[in-house]
Amino acid sequence: MTVGKKQALRRCLRATLVLCASTAGAQEPVLLRLHPRVGDTLHTLLEQQTDVSMPAAVGRSTSTSVAIHSQTIVRSVQPTSTIVLTVVDSARLTSSDSHTAATIAAAQKAIEGQQLVLQLGADGTVEWARDIKGALVSREIADAMSSMPAVFPKKPVIVGQQWTREMPLPSGGPLGAKGSGRAKATFRLDSLGRNGTLAFVSMRGEIVPDSASQGVELNGTISGAMQLDRIRGWMTDSKFLIVLRSLVTPPASSGLAPMRFLTRVTQRLRTMDKR
Fold first, then answer.
1. Alpha carbon separation from 32 to 97, 176, 239 (Å, rounded)
2. Among 28, 39, 108, 162, which is most buried by a count of CB atoms within 10 Å?
3. Is the Cβ–Cβ distance between 118 and 98 less than 8 Å?
4. pTM over 0.90
């Protein structure tokens, strides 16, 4: 074998070894979990736009936007849970419906200054929540204040692997109609960045009703993408889109026909070092 052929063979072998090592490293399972450091203060901005329309009624639609600045202070960290204090610094709510101005103003006033102590599981689940006086608060308020949906898998995963979770939807349908449902979503670890310290996760699923009680039937879709800082142990960016179709059947005694609503909710949550 000539010298040139030997050198070419060595280069080929080196390239093969590098490729194999890279592939093996990419397949190393990683644990996606909540584990911030005690004393960390995480500043978050939640922006949400909700558009509700009646497809059969021309011009019948409303839009509501919400922007909430808050800070989450990490009080204690255990292997399976974290206790944080979340404080709402400011809130801004607007609506295209002038008839709800008083309601919007009252809601904004109630949110600003809100303080909750939450215990979060390593997967982001809200295990319990109390107000600043120690009284338990509702699950709906707790989930809204947690800034951390329960999306993490129970076990380590590799790039390309999927897992499924079910998440409850807040009660209360369009225009005050009652109804409840849950999102059955499939998550996927799409890639890792910055030497494995950043995890990029996508999500897609469907919304199914818990029941058809109270005259409301729900169905729809949910999709999104999120970014987890594995060093910080916190989700630093997430985007979600919910498309919800509702059929509201009034009581027979009302004489009203069933009404269909289409709701689109776009939400982005960002965590920043400072505002």
1. 41, 37, 18
2. 108
3. no
4. no
Query: pLDDT per residue over 198-252, tens digit each?
Result: 999 999 999 887 765 567 788 899 999 999 999 999 999 999 999 999 888 888 8
Our CA angle for 195, 201, 206, nearest 5°, is: 175
Amino acid present at 268: R
Helix, strand or coil, per DSSP, at residue 115: strand
Q: What is the distance between the alpha carbons of residues 152 and 146, in angstroms, rounded to a whole number?
A: 14
Retrieve residue 10's tokens.
């060595």
Q: Distance between CA atoms of 222 and 169, rounded to whole angstroms?
A: 11
Residue linked to tokens 């069933």: 258
In contact, 268 and 47? CB cutoff 8 Å: yes
Token pair belonging to 47:
């922006």
Task: Give, as one character, the DSSP assignment of residue 150.
Answer: S
How far is Cα 177 from Cα 273, in angstroms, rounded to an integer? 39
Nearest to 226 by CA among 148, 114, 162, 116: 148
Cα radius of gyration rounded to whole Å, the chain: 23
DSSP, residue by residue, 226-237: EEEETTTTEEEE
Indicate the burial class of 151 (C-beta count within 10 angstroms; 0-12, 13-18, 19 or more): buried
Task: Indicate if the pLDDT at residue 25 is higher than 60.
Answer: no
Q: Which two tokens stand for residue 153?
A: 């898998």
**Counting beta carbons within 10 angstroms of the beta carbon of residue 148, is it exposed (0 to 12), middle (13 to 18) or buried (19 or more)?**
buried
Sequence-separated contacts (24+) of 185-188 with Cβ below 8 Å: 185/151, 185/222, 186/162, 187/151, 187/153, 187/162, 187/163, 188/160, 188/161, 188/162
73 beta partners: 41, 85
Give SS3 for 249: coil
- Sign of torsion, CA 82 87 90 91? positive
